[in-house]
Amino acid sequence: MERQVKLLMLCGLTLLLTTGVRCRTAARRSDEGIPSYVGYKVLRVTSRSREALSRTLRHFEKQQGDVWSHLPYSASVMFPREQVEEAIRIAKKEGLGISVILDDVQRYLDANHRKRHERRKRAATVDVTNSYLGLDEINAFLQNVTRSASAADVISSTIGLSFEGRNTPVIEIRERNTKSSGTQKKAIIIDAGIHAREWIAPALALNIINKLAFNPDNDPDVLDLLKKFDWIIAPVVNPDGYEYSRTNSGARLWRKTRTSQYSESCKGVDANRNFGFGWDPDVGGSREPCSDVFSGNIAFSEPEARNMRDWLQRNKGRAAAYLTLHSYGQYVLYPYGTCDNRVADNKDILEDLGKTFANALGQKGRRYSVGNSCQLLYPAAGGSDDYAKGSLGIPVAYTIELSPGEKNFFFGFDLPESEIASTVGDTWFGLKLMVQRLYQVYSGSKSAGSQTVRTGSSAQSASQTQLVPVVINGITYYFNSSDPNTQQWLTAYRSLSG
User: Which of 76, 150, 331, 343 is 20 to 30 Å apart from 368, CA to CA?
Assistant: First the structure.
């Protein structure tokens, strides 16, 4: 109790000295230092007005609310018991609907923890499609992929060490028999697990690796995707936080890294607020170490963010797209989260590719929203997608917020293992179509909206109509330079090709 009072006093002082700071207390801790969410409740608020909802959520954050999800017209927020009555008052004042969807968060976490433990004891084997793997299991799986991949060539490495000294593995997957050819295609770069509690993100990344390396479903699209792109995937970029979130049910909602350089009692930094492009703790972050969105003291202060920075820099010339996997809420978000006047130079293309993914998931009954992260969700300066796009010039960058969504929001971050397979299957379907569309857009094919003529008998008529010749993968195409849509595709392609 004394620590809570001191923390609230510190938060009040911080708010007096700074502006725009989110001051959120962490979960209570037992005598052993284990987090506890006993009595914490999750409230669901609904509104017909996005503005009213966003305004209410800002109030909630001042009341120690932890926003679990923020959909266009609804949100789920966790509160300590003593703040629930005030939260209900604020919501009703704004004309929002409000209800309790989880009466005791710790009881819910305990029940799910027991179920996973009992299932593990019964299972003869642990497989990547039906289980959330621990770090040792992940490393063993990646070693097996490197050693035994049957559908592709695989190269394993690490992007660096975490604060607690753990390796951060990365897998590169290439078309068969091209490992030592010296030629490198453009690459799709994927990472996951920057937020520890978002377990479905590493699970999806591992399943993408499995599908590309082994093609267990004999999917003809896999060979096609490997012909088009190399794939570089880092499945757990915050290994310390991820491993801590698995230690017991009380730690299940841990979000940050595990650095202790700012506070022994309030460890960790939100690594996705620590990147150097537009870094600003007052825009969706915090200067308070006890906050879940603590941004660190300077940009790239954390080894996990520096590891990712260096990894992305090494591959920026190859990168066709950068996808960072998170959960939850079912969003496809593109830069920028700085909430200033910055606009992505290829916003139309980002919208097009994002909607390709969202429409595909819609066929599976999953509703995804596409848009600028600031306008669609909330301010979030210092994110990895902004850095990839704004600092490194990677043309396509997204944060993909995975399931659950509107229909099963009550799962929160603790999506059951029984949901992994369907989430992976549906998301992989959408991802394949988006990547195929990406290739179409940047290769100038007819389906991308360009007017193209291949070399051969049409070359004469092309010159007569003053089409512009462009060599793509050794083939000369002729583009109608007077078509503004074609010019947009050409500009994007040349940007991608360097």
Answer: 343
